[in-house]
Each structure stands twice: as C-alpha cells, then as structure tokens.
Amino acid sequence: MPLTPNTKKRLVTAALVAPASIWLFVFLVLPFIAIIVFAFGERAPEGGYQPAFTFAQFANLGSRAAAFKNTLILAPIGAVACLLVAYPVAYYLAVKASPKYRLLLVSLVVVPFWTSLLVRTYAWMYILGARGIPHLLEMVGIENVRLLNTPGAVLLGIVYGYLPLMIMPIYVSLEILDRRLLEASADLGARPLSTFFGITLPLSLPGVMTGIALVTILLLGEYLIPQLLGGGKVFFIGNALVDLFLQSRNWPFGSAIAVTLVVVVVIVLLIAMRIAWRVAGTRQVDLV
C-alpha cells in the first residue's frame, strides 16, 4: 500500500527528530530518573546508594541551609548585577555603535568564552589576592583589605563570567527594535529618558527576562566560582553536591538536594516566562 504524502512527511519528521530525542532521553531523562530514585533511598554503610523508600533525605535539607541561602541570595543578586552592567553595553552595541564596527564589538563580547572559565577565574584570584589589588592599596596607605574569599569576590566573578550571556539576548532584542518608534517619539517632543522608559525598555524586556532567567538558572548550579573566589567560605548548592557525592558519598542526600534544585530552577523559569508574557503582551517569548 503506497504511503500518503502526510505519512511520508511524518516519517521524515520522525527520522529527523529521533536522534536528538534518543540523545536527550539517554543522557538527560534517564539520569534524572536515577537521581529521583536515589533521592528516596538511603546511604549504604560504605557509602553510595542503598534501596529504600523514605523521605528522610528531603526532611534533612535544612542541614544545608547555608548553601541554599547563599545560592538563593547571591544568584539573583549576581543576575541583577549582570543586568546593570550588560544593558548599557547591549544598548550601545545595538543602537549607538556604528554598523561598520558593530560586528567587531559584538565579537569582543564573545571573546572571553574562547578561554576556559577556570583560567579566567584563577586570574581573578591573583587580582583579588594578597599580591593584587590589596597590595596596591597597601602602597597608598590602605591596609588590611581582604577581597578574596568573600561574597563580594564571588559576585565579581559571577558578573565577569556570565556577563556575555546577559548581553547577547538583550542585544538581540534591541537590535530588532524598530527605529521609527524612537524617531516618532522624538518628533512628538518626548525627552530621551521618556523615550527610553516608554519605548526602548518595554520592547527589550523579553531579552532582559531571557538574560535574567538564563544567568539565574546557571548560577543556581554554579560550583567553580564560589569554590575558587569564595575559598570554601561561600558555599553554593553546587559545592554541597560535590561534597556529598564525591567526599561524603551520601548519594541519596545529594540526590534530594539535586531534585530540589531542579524544582527551584523550574519555578524560576516559570516566573520569568510569566513576567515576560505579561510585560511583552505575547506568549511567544523564548527563554531558552
């Protein structure tokens, strides 16, 4: 029996989608299912996982309250700090920069990604360490300044490491902005500040929310920056997971924290989507 055109299209679509679907199922869905199973188990006497069905691991989440507190406070603050730095840069690139040099300037924003985050974070360890800025301050009479191993150092590393991820979605929103709206606003006598808050900012909010959601979600699982710039004194959830899985070998408790983290990420994403939809007045806003 010959296949109909619609059947052929469906088969072609299934053939194209199947490899990615299988990849995601094997490397994303199955590991997450395993984590959920571990979360309801118990720690084996020698470490690892022991089959059981208990909610004790979730009831013990309060023992890692410091990690949750640091993450839920510093991650949003870091995202907002990235936004405050990224928006002027994105605005200049999209609206003010000459088209002749715009591509070059945008490329410079992406250049830091060509170098490992580990190497760049180590550079900040030197800059903020005893031989860096504190040494320069001592030379001018300002002594006993400690920058490394502080929440401020972690926030600085967050802004530096995640700034390009905030700039690019805002730049895309501003780059497609209809310039005729700005010209009309100026022709009608609106001041530049009124034009910005009345036209530019509202129309760029989908990009803003995309950047905030993207950066916040990644920061919720951040490990490297708190570990190196926080010096073990500023713990994120990611640091707690490494400790539980690799050192304490308490896989069930680590899995419970991981599941809780996923729930928090989903909540953050849903809130960001709802805000973006309401502000932009459309349900066609992509955040990931």
UniProtKB/TrEMBL annotation:
Pfam families, alphabetized: BPD_transp_1
Domain ABC transmembrane type-1: 68-272
InterPro entries, per the entry: MetI-like, MetI-like_sf
Membrane topology: Multi-pass membrane protein
The entry's keywords: Cell membrane, Membrane, Transmembrane, Transmembrane helix, Transport
Cellular localisation: Cell membrane
Keyword check for Glycosyltransferase: no
Region forming the signal peptide: none
Biological process according to GO: transmembrane transport
Residue ranges of the TM segments: 12-40, 73-94, 103-127, 147-172, 193-219, 253-277
Keyword Cell membrane annotated: yes
Entry's Gene Ontology cellular component terms: plasma membrane
Family: Belongs to the binding-protein-dependent transport system permease family. CysTW subfamily.
Name of the protein in its database record: ABC transporter permease
Organism in which the protein naturally occurs: Rhizobium pisi
